[in-house]
Amino acid sequence: MAALMYQILSSSALVSLGLYHMVATTRNYLKSPQSYSAKPYHPFPLSSSSPNHRLRYLQLFLITACLIVAVVHQSATSLDADPLLKGRTPVHRFTSLQSAAALFLFLLLTLAILLSECAPSLLPLSTDLIFGLAAALFYIHSFISREAASVQTSDLQAKCDSVSGRVSALASLLCLVLACQPKLFVADVGLGAAVSLQGLWVLQTGLSLHADAFIPEGCHKLLDVVSGVEGSTKCDLDESRFRAVAILDLLFLVHVMFVLLILLLTYAVVAKSVGIRKLASYEALPTAVPVPDNNHNHIQMKALSGTQA
């Protein structure tokens, strides 16, 4: 149950972060498409003279807190003393420490961005450098996930880790593109969608491995491993294993379509909001009443009378 709760909290944090990035990116792009440029961090729209100007960095504070919890959790999982209860083997210990190290690198990057925002003179980080570092960290996370999938004894866990590694590789590629082309709106909003997709897949991983109601038919938890760590969810027959992997592939496509729907709805809602504000900022232009030209009418009448004569 504790592992499932951790997966739910991690999923909520990632989905919220990705959704906020999509909304902020779309809003900045629609407000001024010509001067648009991707940003790794979108502060809350509060003035620096406001008494609550520290809330502008609330997103970075929350990310820091979540990463600290994640690092502590991964470290505690690798140091558990009961090999049967938590699956503490050299393979599991090293993979857990690798995950903790990757999360710690993300924590250092977040603290660096926070320091750069609060004191630019101490650590002036450029946007392309931040995106480049983020691309490297996402690639490291993708590499660790693929390596963890290769040593898993559970086919379900290996499949979940493999898909998570692919999503992290996509996020790494998008960050690399933004480091080279910061005005590419598709890559920027796609990065937020990739983070949200990773959050949804974290939730699906927790449900498929730790919730009895969501474990595929023909698969079950091992009786001697209660917490669901290191291959505790097994499939007895090859047919059940193939069926479970196919179900996970189908669920991943469902998550992709759901994220795409969220992206389209976000763009539509933000576009309507920005459009309404723009229309409200303009004043009604006076209606020009055409002034009749008497000379022009006089010339037309003379021409008409000459034709009739």
Name the features.
309 residues, mainly alpha, disordered C terminus, 2 strands, 71% helix, globular
Shape: globular
Number of helices: 9
The residue-averaged pLDDT reads 80
Helical amount? over 70%
Please give a structural write-up.
- The structure is a single chain.
- The chain is an all-alpha fold.
- It is built from nine helices and two strands; from the N terminus they run αααααααββαα.
- A two-stranded antiparallel sheet has the order 1-2.
- Helix 1 packs antiparallel against helix 7, helix 1 (about 1-30) runs parallel beside helix 8 (about 240-280) and helix 2 packs antiparallel against helix 4 (about 90-120).
- The longest helix has about 45 residues, at about 240-280.
- The protein is globular.
- The termini are far apart.
- The relative contact order is 0.12.
- The model is unreliable at about 80-85, about 225-230, about 280-285 and about 300-309 (pLDDT under 50).
Give the secondary structure arrangement, pairings included.
Blueprint: H1 2-31, H2 58-78, H3 83-86, H4 90-118, H5 127-150, H6 155-180, H7 185-210, E1 219-221, E2 233-235, H8 238-281, H9 294-308
Please outline what is shown here.
By secondary structure, this protein is mostly helical. It is built from nine helices and two strands; from the N terminus they run αααααααββαα.
